[in-house]
């Protein structure tokens, strides 16, 4: 009935996808956590620390992770704290503009996004993924820019175009779904 009062048919509300994340339907996308870039990111240590928590939770809960690196020859490979086994190499700011990127995401996965810079590579990639019909969850405390106003402007723009704005803690507890999850204690300890 609440939906009918808002002008939204009840059937449409019932047929909407679940607004929360589930580990089996998620992929963590870590964009350009590279040394030369992180050296100029505001509060970089916090951003990397949050990304590290996300990666650890993803690993615990079986969520695949895909790292990207922008012009690794100039910006370096992913920072040591996050060092992936491999990273998707790109020269385009929008990762979707690099051939093969969308194929690496898997069909129907919700994309949880962390990375730098929020107003360049993160923003352009998120907007393209939204345009491609993907559900996107931007982790506000795991993205960074050189200046706070650039990050906040990017967050508002991504949200306006349909991205969900979340925090690390929100993601981890949605992936857990219940305190009865066998990995609850390990995952919850990452947040402390």
TrEMBL record:
One of its GO terms (molecular function) is hydrolase activity. It holds the Pfam family Isochorismatase. Residues 26-169 form the Isochorismatase-like domain. Gene3D superfamilies: Isochorismatase-like. Keywords: Hydrolase. This is Isochorismatase hydrolase. It comes from Rhodomicrobium vannielii (strain ATCC 17100 / DSM 162 / LMG 4299 / NCIMB 10020 / ATH 3.1.1).
């Amino acid at each position: 009935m609440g939906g009918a009062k808002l002008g939204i048919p009840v059937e449409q509300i019932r047929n909407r996808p679940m607004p929360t994340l589930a580990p089996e339907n998620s992929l963590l996308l870590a964009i350009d956590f590279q040394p030369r870039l992180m050296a100029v990111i505001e509060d970089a240590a916090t951003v990397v620390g949050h990304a590290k928590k996300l990666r650890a939770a993803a690993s615990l809960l079986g969520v695949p992770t895909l790292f990207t690196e922008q012009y690794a020859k100039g910006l370096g490979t992913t920072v040591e704290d996050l060092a992936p086994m491999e990273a998707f190499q790109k020269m385009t700011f929008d990762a979707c503009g690099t051939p093969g990127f969308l194929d690496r995401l898997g069909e129907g996965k919700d994309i949880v996004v962390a990375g730098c810079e929020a107003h360049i590579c993160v923003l352009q990639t998120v907007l393209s993924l939204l345009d491609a019909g993907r559900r996107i969850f931007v982790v506000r405390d795991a993205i960074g820019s050189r200046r706070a106003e650039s990050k906040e402007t990017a967050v508002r723009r991504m949200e306006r175009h349909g991205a969900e704005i979340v925090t690390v803690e929100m993601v981890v507890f949605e992936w857990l779904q219940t305190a009865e999850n066998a990995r609850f204690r390990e995952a919850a300890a990452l947040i402390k």
